[in-house]
Amino acid sequence: MNKKIIICIVFAMCFLSKGYAQSGTNSPYSMYGLGILSDRSQGFNRGMAGVAQGFRGGSYINMQNPASYSNIDSLSFIFDAALSLQNMNIEENGNKANAKNANFEYVVAAFRVAKHLGASFGIMPFTNIGYDFTQKGTITDPFLDVYENNYYGSGGIREVYLGLGWNPFKGLSIGFNAGYLWGDMTKTIHSSHSISSANSLNRIYSTNINSYTFDFGLQYEQPIKKDDRIIIGATYTLGHNLGNTAYAYDVKTDTTSYSVGDAYSIPHIISAGVGWHHKDKWSVGIDYTMYKFGDTEIPDLTSVSPTKNIYAKTKGLMLDRHKIAVGGEWVPNAMSRRFLDRVHYRLGGYYATPYIKVYDHNKNLVDGPKEYGLSFGFGIPIINTYNSRSLLNISGQWVHSGMDSLIKENYLRLTVGLTFNERWFAKWKFD
User: Quick check: 74 and 111 in contact, CB under 8 A?
Assistant: First the structure.
């Protein structure tokens, strides 16, 4: 495939993604905090539950650890893009619902800049918000009142980045990503009552984000046998205030507005992992990631009297998040003539604690839902005139998130991506 085909595919994927829901989620839990956190995995590791810290290959892009860019093949330009389809089943107290959506996942690229120096750039989601649900109930004291609360939210944060990875001496690589964050978050609550004397509520929360992000990465590679090597990796994402203003509006006969400056922050994120690689045949890895949300304040609107509300930054609404992921890949024989022997077979699983606190049916603040999932995938070689290093990446994910007393979610996500690894920089010689 030549450059024109690649460019056409990029524009086609971006165009198709505009026709679908851009939130990437249908979860009611995305109404809390910054929304649902993106796992930032890509074609090579999405089927391995996103393990990345101990992986560095010359034929794929690992933006989760920018130190890996130093290993990009000097003759290649690598391009990776993907779309996903998701089917979610939601259950609460015997009531069930189903939601479907499709989403643009990412577009990333990488190439060698100089000896021992690689670069990458791309765009992907950072957080996602998307929900639309209704709660109904009855109040009997002092009068019979049937009420209905409608909740709707959309938006999220996107990231575009540019990164470099450098190999200063044998075995050690360092790197960084410098990114720009932008997006908006809108959350609406509307309540209605069967009796006219009850006060109805129509409240809108909104904010717009424009800020920066920095990721720093480190990898150390150590051969342990003739055909085996261990790679230890770690990354750190700088936590900081996003410098945005959050607004809340109460819409009645007139509009009452509240605002909070420097409203939201992204946390310090620390990740570490190790990968064991045997030739080009199999690789396994394990990652641990901690998101330091526990010390972060976010805006919260509270009533101090029937006629007065306070909108202010509040601590204690979020938790430190811990995630552990395990995954691996197996290629029976990359040089075989048999097609199935050249396929990359991937499998993984993960477990994560919540970073948000939520309100239960009694209006008590409790820890949010824990999450666990399984994933599998295939990297299918694309044979063309020039090489067979390009892959069609197909992965499936099953995820469970929820609480016994509140909403339970189970969803299946299918991600289809293309990794083009083309020898754009090869110099052909003729006798």
Answer: no
What does pTM read for this prediction? 0.90
Q: Does the pLDDT value for residue 166 go beyond 70? A: yes
Phi, psi at residue 174, to the nearest 5°?
Answer: -130, 160
* Sign (positive or negative) of CA dihedral 10, 11, 13, 14: positive
Q: Are 397 and 413 in contact (CB under 8 A)?
A: yes
pLDDT, tens digit, for every residue of 120-153? Answer: 999 999 999 999 988 887 877 666 778 888 999 9
Beta bridge partners of 367: 357
Dist. CA 212–CA 192, nearest whole Å: 40
Spatial CB neighbours of 254, under 8 Å, sequence gap ≥ 6: none
Residue matched to tokens 């009068």: 143
The residue to which tokens 């810290």 are assigned: 53
Residue 28: φ, ψ to 5°: -60, -25
- pLDDT tens digits for 347-399? 999 999 999 999 888 888 999 999 999 999 999 998 654 455 789 999 999 99
Output the pLDDT for position 103: 84
Mean pLDDT of 174-196: 91
Give the model's pLDDT for residue 332: 94
State the average pLDDT over residues 255-265. 90
